[in-house]
Amino acid sequence: MSDNKELNSATMNWHIINWVAILGMISTSLYLTSHYFDVHFPTGLVGGTLCDINSFFTCSAATNSPFSNVMGVPISLFGLLIGLFLASGYLFKSKEIEGTNHFILMINAVGCLVLFLYSLIALGTLCPFCTLYYVFSFLALFVFYKHSSLKSPSLKPLAAYVLVGLIVSGMTYANVNEKNSKKGALAKSLIEQFFNLPNLGKPATDSPFLVAKVGDKFDDAVIRITKFSDFECPACSMLSDHLLKVADKYQGLVSIQYKFYPLDVNCNASVKQQIHRNACNASYLAYCAPEKFLELHHEIFNQVNSSGLTTKWLTEKAKKLAVEDCYKSKETRDAVVQIISEAKPFNITSTPTMLINGVKIEGVLPIDQINIILDEIVARSKK
Question: What is the CATH number of the domain that holds 91?
Answer without folding.
Answer: 1.20.1440
